[in-house]
Design a protein that fits this description.
The complex is a heterodimer of chains A (217) and B (244). Chain A is built from 8 helices and no strands. Chain A is mainly α. Chain A has a single domain, classed as MetI-like fold (Orthogonal Bundle). Chain B has 9 helices and 10 strands. In chain B, strands 6-7-8-3-9-10 form a 6-stranded mixed sheet, with helices on both faces. A 4-stranded antiparallel sheet of chain B has the order 2-1-4-5, covered by helices on one side. Chain B starts with a strand and ends with a helix. With 244 residues, chain B is of the alpha/beta class. The radius of gyration of chain B is 18 Å and the shape is globular. The chains are: A mainly alpha (217), B alpha/beta (244). The interface between A and B is medium-sized, with 20 and 27 residues.
Chain lengths: 217, 244
């Protein structure tokens, strides 16, 4: 069978896997953004306890492999608590915590990169601390963060492939399944890789457009 | 009437003592210019007045209210104290009009339309009526600083602080900013101006403070300070500044 025929034959299953990959990535990244902003604000809080929670969270997330985090949540936590959890739910929890940890550092860096004069000007006008943060600092921090955030999105989209170890039939697992039937590892991994590449490429193009639209320079 | 009352003001950054005990009253309607060598504590003095810096010791009162970062009403107290910065500090993500309306809308619960009308009047006053919809990045330094003044005035403050407002400007733009400040002084605004513009201080100030080494080393009317300096330090400073 030629490459084209092989591709057409595999396409339905690969697209099924791809759609699950995208769903997993989209849900996880949406939650990760919220976790990231909250964790970043905690990391810069005046309350020592909040700062400590942020530090420990980031340390654990960065200090352990995603694979271990996914196993821990799907097998470890469910076992100890005696609860049942779908592989998708476990995957979302692992990915969103993981990406959230990295995002919190990205957001913290972005917020701290905003000129301190901006906060001073806002406070001197009488704006409260929270009005200053949300109306003046965050809108500028987001612009600074866009390249790093998109970078993290790319990483997390590809990290969904690690979630196949807990039995989720996402794109990488779909590739494995097909290879188990047709033994065409060379061609199949090219196809799987190309689909990831396509998604990342489209995201990159989109981010460039957004970056240009919101640029302040 | 006393607008600002400063007693025993000290400020240290770590082991570094910047202000070493300043006592000063500023009357309503008075224009006070603060001069002195760089690093003498002029800007720190100014920033203590609206509590951007928290005093290490001593008190600052505006209209009898203690300026304290931890006071519940510190935001309301700051509304009455406008500030203009050396680096302008316009909000780069907001248009000129939004820069001016954001505080009135958020703080005074002024309607958007009313705030915009006020903002346009202020822009007219500083000679920038045609720049309402421009973004800050497209303005020159002098224009930015005039917008910054309009932004501060939009809160209808009773006191305006100027922190070296012309120091970051190209020489040809200094005049347009000083003109706006001069007009403001003539209208009776209470102003504290940290400046290196001796001509402006001499012409506009009711009183000049010479801060050196963290204390008010000498003060008086412009004629006294510039015409008849008493201390050697002030004489040396004026000589160095006026010769350059």
């Amino acid at each position: 069978m030629g490459f084209i025929d092989l591709f057409l034959e595999s396409l339905p299953l690969l697209l099924q896997g791809l759609s699950l990959t995208l769903e997993l990535a989209a849900v996880s990244l949406a939650i990760a953004m919220v976790i990231g902003i909250v964790a970043a604000l905690m990391g810069m809080s005046k309350v020592p306890l909040f700062r400590a929670i942020n530090r420990i969270f980031v340390l654990i997330i960065r200090g352990t492999p995603l694979l271990v985090q996914a196993y821990f949540i799907y097998f470890g936590v469910t076992g100890v608590l005696g609860i049942r959890m779908s592989a998708f739910t476990a995957g979302v929890i692992a990915l969103s915590l993981n990406a959230g940890g990295y995002m919190s550092e990205i957001f913290r860096g972005g917020i701290q990169a905003v000129d301190p004069g901006q906060r001073e000007a806002a406070r001197s006008l009488g704006l409260s601390a929270s009005q200053t943060t949300w109306r003046i600092i965050i809108p500028q921090a987001i612009r600074i963060c866009i390249p790093s955030v998109v970078n993290q999105w790319c990483i997390t989209i590809k990290d969904t492939s690690i979630i196949c170890v807990i039995g989720l039939a996402e794109l990488t697992r779909a590739g494995q399944t097909i290879i188990a039937r047709n033994y065409r590892a060379f061609e199949m991994w090219i196809m799987v890789g190309a689909l990831y590449l396509l998604v990342i490429y489209l995201l990159t193009v989109l981010s460039r457009i957004v970056e240009r639209k919101v640029s302040l320079d | 009437m006393i607008k600002v009352e400063i007693r025993g003001l000290c400020k240290s950054f770590g082991p570094k003592e910047i202000l070493k005990g300043i006592d000063c009253d500023i009357e309503t309607g008075e224009v006070v210019c603060v001069i002195g060598p760089s690093g003498s504590g002029k800007s720190t003095f100014l920033r203590c007045i609206n509590c951007l810096e928290e005093p290490t010791a001593g008190t600052v009162k505006v209209d009898g209210h203690l300026m304290d970062e931890n006071a519940k009403n510190i935001d309301e107290l700051r509304e009455d104290v406008g500030m203009v910065f050396q680096q302008f500090n316009l909000f780069p993500h907001l248009s000129v009009l939004d820069n001016i309306t954001i505080a009135p809308v958020l703080r005074k619960r002024m309607g958007k339309a009313e705030a915009e009308q006020t903002a346009r009047q202020l822009l007219e006053r500083v000679g920038l009526a045609d720049k309402a919809d421009a973004m800050p990045r497209s303005l020159s330094g002098g224009q930015k600083q005039r917008v910054a003044i309009a932004r501060a005035l939009a809160m209808r403050p009773g006191l305006m602080l100027f922190d070296e407002p012309t120091s970051a400007l190209d020489p040809e733009m200094v005049g347009e900013v000083l003109d706006v400040m001069r007009q403001l002084a003539e209208e009776g605004m209470t102003m504290v101006v940290v400046t290196h513009e001796m001509g402006f201080a001499r012409q506009v100030a009711d009183r000049v403070l010479f801060i050196d080494g963290g204390v008010i080393a000498e003060e008086g009317t412009p004629d006294e300070v510039f015409g008849n300096p008493k201390s050697e330090r002030l004489k040396g400073f004026l000589k160095a500044v006026l010769e350059s």
